[in-house]
Amino acid sequence: MSRVELRGLSKRFGPVHAVRDVSLNIPDHSFVTLLGPSGCGKTTTLNMTAGLERVTQGDILLDGVAITAWAPHERGMAMVFQNYALYPHMNVYDNMAFGLKLRKFPRAEIDRRVKEAARMLGIENLLNRKPKELSGGQRQRVAVGRAIVREPKVFLMDEPLSNLDAKLRVQMRAELSKLHRRLEATVIYVTHDQTEAMTMGDRIVVMKDGFIQQVGAPLEVYEKPVNVFVAGFIGSPAMNFMEGILRREDGQYYLDAPPMKLPIPPQKAAEYRRLGEYIDKPVIFGIRPEDIDDTELIANPNPETTVVANIEVVEPMGSESYLYATVGPHSFVARVDPHTSARDGEPHRVTLNMARVHLFDKETERRIE
Amino acid sequence: MASAGTWLRPAAVYALVALLLLWTVAPVAWIATMSVQPEINYVSVPPRLRLEQTSLRWYAATLAEPEFVSALRTSAIVSTATMLLCLTFGALAAYPLARLNVPHRNLYLSLSIVARMVPAMILIIPMFLLLRNLRMLDTHLGLIVVYTAFLLPYVIWMLKNFFEQVPYALEAAARMDGCSRLGALVRVIIPVTAPGVVATAVFAFIGAWNEFLFGLILSTRVAVPVTVKLSSLVSTTFHSDTSLVAAAGMLALLPPVLLVFVLNRFIVRGLVEGMKY
Amino acid sequence: MGTTLSERSEPRPSLSQRLHRMSEARFGLLLLLPAALVLLVFLALPLAYAATMSLFRIELTVSPDWRWTGLGNYLSLLGERAVRDSLARTLAFAILTVGSSVLLALGAALALNEPFRGRGFARVLMLLPWAVAPVVAGVLWRYLFHSNYGLVNALLLQAGAIPAYRVWLDSAPVAIAIAALATAWKTLPFLALIILARLQSIPESLYRAARMDGAGIWARFRYITLPQLRGILIFAVVMQTIVALQSFDLIFTLTRGGPGQGTVLLSYLVFINAFERLSLGNAAAMAALLALLIVLLGGLTPLIAAERRGKESRDG
């Protein structure tokens, strides 16, 4: 069993409060991602879990046992570092065997584990090389291998893919996911890349300024972001945010954002219980680029949510095109069909799918309840 | 670009470098010559050096002199011991200064910087009295301890600079693998900074070997380092063989010079990287 | 799968566990202890003792007593003729040393920065003077300029520059100049290396841009190289000044302070006061002032370094 629980974890560095009251339940064999911008406290939380950083306040439990005061090597956890941290004076074999040697494992057992991990990662032929002779991707595998041989209960990964080039990153993402399933271990994964979080995790923990903003499955965090920060952090390109006054006319809610007047479908409005309190008040509404279409290229465009936008730049991406547009004082990005006829500097009609709008309180930036 | 300058530049560089090397080597080369030629050859005006009269007999004579051999031995013992002591204490001290969150860390760092700059001259008398009270005058141990105290600030500073260059993740990996903090220092940090550690060791050894003032004051008969012995030879041998003095001088400078030539790569690194602020 | 509870050690705190449980601060202080002890007993204590001595009048040739004089020793220092003369000599020596060594080091660094055959060998050979003890360097240069068998005399005679062998070290200004030259010889490796290191870190792209703009060799040196070297040159000047102020060993074997008192620099004066005149209070006061001056100068260097770093990051 390898269930990790963080209770009220807090870390101060002098006056700086890096991590504030982080409580998290990480079930056995799950893959949890700590996601957030740099400085949000995700790495510090990971380091505290590993025992590399002292806890200012709070507790860490492993299978119900408090390990908060335990030394790193007593916790049964292994860590993969961002820049791999391979011992430069040892070859790959010794790098992977180091921890086992320190624990006085018998040589035969060390050999078995190292060879097996190497086979799993496809690096058997590199065992005699020194780290400086390896490519980035190879070094990363060795770092992962070093963690695997320990047969830990929990794998901790600190942005392991961020030093790889884009193509390699995509490849390694899939491999790490496969590894997770094969090893049946618990993984706590730190990253600032929301694509990695979305594709690799069972659950995402979004952090900012030391606080947890939201915890949930990838789709849940994508569909129901709990505040503006999470909404804007997840999804690429980022969600568009605009301001408008919420109005109600003839039982229909709509957003008054001159020159636009956007009706909110009743099903959507029904999701927000306290929507009524915001009538005639300014709200922040968000709509993802993928929910804005080129009017000409969709079937049954809703004329009520169609606007004429001034297209500033068209970025053809191949599989789709990004339109950077403005309507009056509002600017947004739209992800549209690549066959769009929109042109730089020309007006074009776009339709907003208001069934997928997100509404936030302007003061608190939290999702309206 | 005009081609007139293309041969001028390398020619100027070669000339400059040749002059530089000549200037560097000349003093030592002259003494080396003096040490293998009979005095009359180079005392005459102009000097008449005879190749066939080159001989190592002055070296043999110097090395037959028991006081001189004892001086060489003293220097060897004291320098090696000082180097080892400095490295041990220094590494232990440099690690927390480089890595750990010690309160008033900056204070200790500044203090060590100030300590490095204290001129030896101010300490000779109190040191003499202190060693006399501890009955360590004219002993190897006395010299070792004093030299260590004097070289420690430099050693700590250099080692700290080298330790700081090790990425923190390496240490973290070692601790995850099961090392204690000290274990990580010994098994990971020091091997990784090996070139820097070697450079520091050479600095300490040479610093101790070349030390003069303390040896002059604190030792009289038994534990006289070779630097002090040499200076006494220079002043007292008015009419005895200058070639002997030259040979003694060569013997005194040989160990550090050999060390430097053999380990030159580390020295350069140490001088440049170890002495940063 | 995975290691079970047996991998965790039971709560029987071994030494290593106790060390780990200790806070980082406590552990760090523990490690600092051995070095701190040595430095305290054999550096700090003598320093304090010497500082105390400087506040007393101690003339061992007269009596073994210490008579309190407060700042008396310090105040009378500048009044003493010997001190003033020595100060002047030391200043002259410092200027000569710093000027010659920094210039020579700059030239050496520039030359060694160029690619040429045998550059590696040259760099190694250059380290020679650094390895030689200052005492031995004094001997070397004494014999170089010896009146009877000096190489300089021999060469100059051969070249026809002088009619007969000269005695060099019997004239105080010449002796000081020779001492400055010897010190420059000794310290060239260190200075040249740090200047070279800085030289090598100047991005090639700056020079390329300058050549596109039409700058010739001298212009490139003046407008790119020199400004970039400003910080390290100042550092070299300060370091070399400290070396000059501390110089003792070399003078001891080169001239023994002679001719007469002609090469008695400040540190040598301290030595004379302490061990020949046995005027310990005076010696201590002089040494204290010298130490203060050096520490002040040395304190400049981190400030300059910080300013240099700040400037570099701004120019980035």
Descriptive account of the structure:
The complex is a heterotrimer of chains A (369), B (277) and C (316). With 369 residues, chain A is an alpha+beta fold. Chain A has nine helices and 20 strands. With 277 residues, chain B is mostly helical. Helices cover 76% and strands 0% of the residues of chain B. Chain B has helices spanning 5-34, 39-43, 57-64, 66-99, 105-117, 124-133, 140-164, 168-177, 181-192, 194-209, 213-218, 226-236, 242-262, 264-273. The model of chain B has no long low-confidence stretch (mean pLDDT 86). Chain C is mostly helical and 316 residues long. In chain C, 72% of the residues lie in helices and 1% in strands. Chain C contains 14 helices and two strands; from the N terminus they run ααββαααααααααααα. In chain C, strands 1-2 form a two-stranded antiparallel sheet. In chain C, helix 4 (81-113) runs parallel beside helix 9 and helix 13 (266-276) packs antiparallel against helix 14 (280-315). The longest helix of chain C has 36 residues, at 280-315. Chains in contact: A-B, A-C, B-C. At the B-C interface, helix 1, helix 2, helix 4, helix 5 and helix 6 of B face helix 1, helix 2, helix 4, helix 5 and helix 6 of C.
Supply the key terms.
heterotrimer; A: 369 residues; alpha+beta; 6-stranded mixed sheet; 9 helices; elongated; C: 316 residues; mainly alpha; two-stranded antiparallel ribbon; 14 helices; 2 strands; disordered N terminus
Quick overview of this protein structure:
The complex is a heterotrimer of chains A (369), B (277) and C (316). Chain A has 369 residues and is an alpha+beta fold.
- Give the termini distance of chain A in whole angstroms: 37 Å
Total helices of chain A: the number is: 9
Specify the biggest β-sheet of chain A.
6 strands, mixed
Report the principal-axis shape of chain A: elongated
Global structural class of chain A:
alpha+beta
Q: How many strand elements of chain B?
A: 0
The low-pLDDT segments of chain B are none
Strand order, largest beta sheet of chain A: 6-7-8-3-9-10
Mean pLDDT of chain A: 91
Distance between the termini of chain B: 41 Å
What order do the SSEs of chain A take from the amino end to the carboxyl end, as H and E? EEEHEEEHHHEHEHEEHHEEEHEEEEEEE
- What Rg of chain B is obtained from the alpha carbons, in whole angstroms? 23 Å
Largest sheet of chain B: none
**SS-derived structural category of chain B:** mainly alpha
Shape annotation of chain B: globular
Q: What is the helical fraction of chain B, as a range of percent?
A: over 70%
Largest interface by residue count?
A: B-C, 98 and 99 residues
